[in-house]
Write a structure and sequence with these properties.
The complex is a heterodimer of chains A (about 220) and B (about 260).
Chain A: E1 2-9, E2 13-20, E3 25-29, H1 33-43, E4 51-56, E5 59-60, H2 66-73, E6 76-79, H3 91-102, H4 109-120, H5 135-148, E7 153-157, H6 165-181, E8 186-191, H7 196-199, E9 204-209, E10 212-216
Parallel strand pairs in A: 3-8, 3-9, 6-7, 7-8
Antiparallel strand pairs in A: 1-2, 1-4, 4-5, 9-10
Chain B: H1 2-29, H2 37-77, H3 82-123, H4 126-132, H5 137-176, H6 180-190, H7 193-220, H8 228-255
The chains are: A alpha/beta (about 220), B mainly alpha (about 260).
């Protein structure tokens, strides 16, 4: 679903290769938050490589127009560590934003949203602005926003960071169920903390060190 | 060394102006996106904030300006010249003050709001987050703002002109006893298509330029939230500068 072929970016990647295949659970561990953020930007086409190739759902990213790239981006759900919510939209509007932007028929979206929020233990008001919410609640709302689009690939950015064991259990359960819900759906976990590997059962584990990905069993 | 600095400045300005032009061009290209619900919501919110919420104040300012202008004109030309007073009122209010005051009110109210909002969204990574969802920021954030601010500028200009003329005429009729018909005759004879077109073109252009400058400055903010006040100040000053430049150019084109 995402393949990096000898990707280089000055001071960050040095002919690094990685593949996230259909149906796999993949974990990528980085040493710094900066590396993790940059990796996320590369995977979503926000930062261009100096050399090498990146394939998104089999298409080389550099050959895509911005419209085509957006078409592929909507097939990727991204759960950002800080939620990535828009501060002047209410939580509900935030969760529904990608769905109502990309699709005109979303008659059962409200019901789906409520179900997902219940499952992961989001207990704040969805009619409020996200500003005063604690960080983990923002992330849960971001999670609901990502999965509501029913993406083929979900990228989780330090998703378990700072969660209480109770909430972590619920989120893990929902992530696992969501991963298996659709055949071929892949999950990519980006984190700096190896503790991540205690929670998820990753098929592929990569460690980014000195500009290269090292695969670990 | 000095020549290099001048060349760099010229190149920077050209680059900035072409960026503004592209932003405006893309906004017009993206107009069909208004059929997308979230884009429409942003558009209506902006219309409400920049146009409707300002309407009351704009009408009051218009009334007061109309009264001031007509008092000065009446003192200058004398009480018996209702027709001339009507003419001057049309020339001053419709040709110049209407679009200019509406632009100044839009700048005071919306430029800081838009540039600060976009700047803060950029610094907090919200725009990147929007892009990651496959949403084009130019469609979702920029186009509705440019369109709404342009329409608001036109709407505010119209209400300002109406309030200024009605306010002026009412005051002279009540305090100086100049018949209402004298004014209307003067106004109707001097109110040509050129006057109305100049007013419309000015307000449209002012709205587009003000919105594009605010969006451009907001999008440029990066790194730290402390850069937001600098961006808003720059956006305000540049908007004023562009408005006065375009005002001069359009007046020359229409009335020279």
């Amino acid at each position: 679903m995402i393949t990096l072929e000898c990707a280089s970016l000055k001071g960050f990647l040095d002919c690094a290769s990685l593949a996230v295949s259909k149906g796999r659970v993949c974990a990528v561990l980085t040493e710094t938050e900066f590396e993790k953020d940059l990796l996320l930007r590369i995977f979503t086409g926000l930062t261009r490589l100096d050399s090498g190739r990146i394939f998104l759902f089999g298409k080389e990213m550099s050959s895509l127009s911005s419209g085509e790239l957006n078409g592929y981006r909507k097939r990727i759900g991204i759960v950002l560590n800080n939620g990535g919510l828009i501060s002047n939209l209410k939580v509900r509007e935030n969760i529904m934003l990608p769905l109502s932007y990309h699709s005109s028929s979303h008659y059962d979206a409200d019901e789906k949203m409520t179900t997902i929020l219940d499952k992961i233990g989001y207990d704040d008001d969805v009619a409020a602005l996200p500003g005063p919410l604690p960080a983990y609640q923002k992330r849960l709302a971001g999670f609901a926003r990502a999965v509501l689009m029913e993406p083929d690939l979900v990228i989780y950015d330090s998703v378990f960071d700072g969660l209480s064991p109770d909430i972590r259990g619920k989120v893990l359960e929902t992530i696992t169920a969501f991963h298996h819900e659709k055949e071929g759906r892949a999950s990519l976990f980006l984190d700096m903390d190896e503790g991540l590997l205690n929670y998820i059962r990753a098929d592929d584990i990569y460690i980014l060190k000195k500009g290269k990905f090292y695969e670990r069993n | 060394m000095r020549i290099k600095r001048i060349t760099d400045n010229i190149l920077d300005t050209m680059f900035y102006l072409s960026g503004l032009f592209n932003l405006i061009l893309n906004a017009f290209k993206n107009l069909p996106s208004l059929r997308i619900t979230p884009v429409r919501t942003v558009f209506f919110r902006q219309i409400y904030f920049a146009g409707i919420e300002t309407l009351g104040k704009m009408v009051i300012i218009g009334l007061l300006i109309g009264i001031v202008i007509i008092s000065q004109i009446t003192s200058l030309v004398g009480v018996g010249r209702g027709e001339l007073i009507g003419k001057i009122l049309v020339w001053v209010v419709i040709r110049e003050l209407g679009p200019l005051f509406a632009a100044i009110v839009v700048i005071a109210r919306s430029v800081t709001a838009i540039s600060a909002e976009l700047g803060s969204m950029n610094v907090q990574g919200e725009i990147a987050s929007i892009e990651m969802m496959g949403i084009d920021p130019e469609r979702y954030l920029i186009m509705p703002r440019i369109t709404a601010l342009t329409l608001s500028a036109v709407m505010l200009t119209f209400y300002f002109e109406l309030a200024a003329i009605l306010g002026g005429i009412t005051v002279t009729s009540i305090f100086w006893g100049i018949p209402f018909e004298q004014h209307t005759t003067g106004m109707l004879t001097s109110l040509t298509i050129a006057e109305l077109s100049a007013s419309l073109v000015k307000s449209l252009l002012f709205g587009v330029v003000i919105a594009a400058v605010s969006c451009s400055q907001g999008l440029k903010v990066s790194g730290s939230i402390t850069r937001i006040p600098q961006a808003t100040t720059k956006a305000t000053m540049q908007s004023l500068f562009f408005v006065f430049i375009f005002d001069g150019i359009i007046t020359l084109i229409f009335f020279l």
